[in-house]
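Our collaborator T.R. sent over the components below with a one-line note: 'Predict the complex.' Nothing else. No constraints on interfaces, no templates requested, no preferences about which chain binds where. So this is a plain run: every listed entity goes in together, and whatever single assembly comes back becomes the starting point for the next discussion.
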Amino acid sequence: MPELPEVETVVRTLRPKITGRRILSAEFTGLRVLIGDARETAEALVGRKITGVTRHGKFIAIALDQGFLVVHLGMTGRLLVDGELTKWTHAVLTLDQGSLVYEDPRQFGRIEYGVSLPARVAALGPEPLEVSEGEFGRRLKLRRSPVKAVLLNQSVVRGVGNIYADEALFRAGVNPKRMAASLGAERVGRVYRAMQEVLREAIEARGSSISNYVDAEGCQGSFQTAHRVYQRTGEPCVNCGAEIKRILVGQRGTHYCGRCQR
DNA sequence: GTTGTTACCTGTACGC
DNA sequence: TGCGTACAGGTAACAA
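Returned assembly:
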C-alpha cells in the first residue's frame, strides 16, 4: 500500500524516464479510476509534453506543458514505465519513447487531468519532512482525536499512512489512542522526530513492499523487513519482549506495544 | 468546522 | 477441492 516513501520512490524512478516525453495517445478503460470523461481526457492529453513529476503527499502530479495529470495509487495502484497490460490495466499513455501504464486491482486509485492541481491536493496539510516541529505541534493541539487518527489525517500532514503512523508512534513511545491535543511538548517532539526518521529510512529503503507495491521500474522496496510493530501482532516487542497488540483506532488496524507506548 | 462511520473493491487467508 | 466469510485500507461522502 503506497504511502509517502513508496510514492516518493515511484516519483524518483518515474521522473528521469518520462520528463521531456510527449504523449502520442491516451487510452482509459477503467472508468471507475478516471475522474472525468475518458474521451475528453484523452483529447486533452494527446500532444502534451511532460515537463516534470512531483509528489504531493501520496498524490503524484505529472506536470504537462498545459495542465497536470494527477494520480493517486490508492491501495494497489501501480504506475509502470513500459508495463505489461493486464486485466487490471486502466490507463495507457503511449509516449514518443515508451509508455506509461496504470494498473490497479482494487480500483481505489484515481487519475484526473486538469489545467491546475485539483482542490483536494491544494487542501492537503504540509509535507511531514518539511513542516517545522512548532507547526506540527500547533496542528496536533487543534485535534481532539487519537494521535494515530490525526497522523492519518491528510489535512494535518500529508503522506503518512497506516504503516508509518504505527511505526512512528512505536519509535516515539506514544500510545496510538492518546488524544493528540493532550500531548505535551516533549511527546510531540518525540512523535515529530520519529515520524521524520521512519519516513527518511523508508525512502532510503525504497519503501515497504506490502501487497503488490513496486516502483515505476517494477522493483520492490525493502523497508517491510524493518517494521517493528506493523503486522507483527502477537510477536515479541523488539524493545521489551511484550506481545505486540492489534486494536482498532479510527476504524484502522493499529499495532503497538502496550508496555513501551504510554 | 470537526469527528466518526460507511462504501468502495478484490486478493488472500482461513475454516469447514 | 471448493465454498463462504473475514479482513486489509485511502479517500470521499455522509451523518452527527
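Summary for T.R.: The mean pLDDT of chain A is 91.
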